[in-house]
Amino acid sequence: MPRTAAPLLTSPIPRVADSDRRRTSASVVLRSVLEHGPVARSTIARLTGLSPASVTDYCARFAELGLIHESAELRRPKGVGRPHLPVDLDDSRFVVGGVHVAVPYTTVALLDLRGRVVARSEVKHVGTEPARVLGRAADALAALLAGAPRSRALGVGFAAGGWVDRDSGTVVEHQLLGWREVQVRKVLGARTGLPVHVDGHARALVNAERLFGRARGSRSVLHLFAGNVVDSAFATHDEVHHGPRSQAGAIAHLPVPGGTEPCACGRVGCLQVELSERTLCRLAREAGVVDGVNPMHVVSAAAAGDPVARRLLRERSRRVGRAVGLLQDVLNPERVVVTEIGVMHRADCLAALREEVGEDRAASVSPISFTDSVLAVAGGSVALDVLYRDPLAASPEAI
After folding, report:
1. Which is the most buried residue in 110, 161, 325, 351, by most CB within 10 A?
2. Which residues of 100-132 are buried (b: 16+ CB within 10 A; e: fewer)?
């Protein structure tokens, strides 16, 4: 149902400041429970710098909403004092939906509040017309929710490559799908009846790493996504940089020294065509390694001992390493996370990437934490990021 506009405030500055403060405080409390639970309220107060009374109040509100619960195990303090009941995340009640639209198929999933995939399905594209793709994704999501009748959905996260505008909920441009100005939030919201949150998949995965992955606690994180689409994201102090209309991270047409692949933009050697999984599969077909378009078949051939498959994967990882090195020079991140099939599945590919990066920075580079569920996590983490940034507003009581 449409909502009526809120009345204008007579003194907006103090109220906005108070609202921001409450949102930030609620976020850090719930994040502390996620990261440290089961955890005592007194420990949360110490970790966050909030008063014990404030922590107790937020925990009570989260418990009422079903986001946390008291642990059944009493814990005794190290010094003198009464035993206490720690609190922990309640991951049994709620899920978020995740939709990730890739070039050949859509991944639809349900994630719990810890970012774990509890159900998923893949929907192969039958044409890439936006309404059809999104409609089939909504139907697949409804089927997953029907199979989890005890779980309540808090919302849906949508992720894709290309230019995705978070604020308007729009895929502005996805060249490989032929999408332009697709109002994803509006279409999926109408089909699902749930709040829909939209972002680019590179930024979505930075948020997933920040919340649930190995990059948790890092002061700055660079993420490079190399699939059929190649893009990046950069986060500092828990904030992912979006830029005007969420166009930050567009690196598809950066030139690769020595590149030979022709790009649709008219140039030769653009990063996306050099690193694309389409290019990898084409080279593998030409070499007789595979006869299809699934890059995981190249990985399987390499695992079976095919020397050409191994060489193709290592060479691709080296090129990814050169791109990472360039971005490191510009952004100087504390951590680098790479989503690329060779690096994710083969130690020799990770070694090749790190060799290109250089010995002094190699240890800061690691594969994505969600090797077996990267696309499902990308979609769902868009909605989970909203939950952990503003847990009171994202709760079912506020929907």
Report:
1. 161
2. bbbbeebbbbbbbbebbbbbbbebebeeeebee
Q: Which residues of the chain have pLDDT under 50?
A: 1-14, 16, 397-399
Question: Cα angle vertex 144, ends 139, 146, to 5°?
Answer: 90
Contacts by 117-125 with C-beta closer than 8 Å and gap 24+? 117/373, 117/376, 117/377, 117/380, 118/148, 118/151, 119/144, 119/147, 119/148, 120/144, 120/373, 120/376
Q: Which two tokens stand for residue 187?
A: 């279409």
Give CA 44 to chain center in angstroms: 26
Separation of alpha carbons 120 and 108, rounded Å: 6
| Side-chain half-sphere exposure of 38, counting CA atoms within 13 A | 11
Q: Are 168 and 200 in contact (CB under 8 A)?
A: no
pLDDT of 7 reads: 36
Q: Give CA separation, 13 vs 8, 10, 249, 390, in Å.
A: 12, 9, 33, 19
Specify the pLDDT at position 85: 86
Rounded Cα gap, residues 123 and 108, in angstroms: 8
pTM here?
0.91
Extract the tokens encoding 398.
């506020």
Q: 217's torsion region: left (phi>0), alpha (psi -120 to 50) or beta?
A: left
Answer yes or no: are the C-beta atoms of 87 and 39 closer than 8 Å.
yes
Q: How far apart are CA 338 and CA 331, in angstroms?
A: 15
| Predicted pLDDT of residue 259 | 87
pLDDT digits (tens, 9 = 90+) for 259-303: 899 998 999 999 999 999 999 999 999 999 999 999 999 999 999
Predicted confidence at residue 76, as pLDDT, reads: 56
For residue 49, is it left (φ>0), alpha (ψ between -120 and 50) or beta? Answer: left
> CA of 53: how far to CAs of 11, 41, 139, 334, in Å?
28, 9, 45, 35
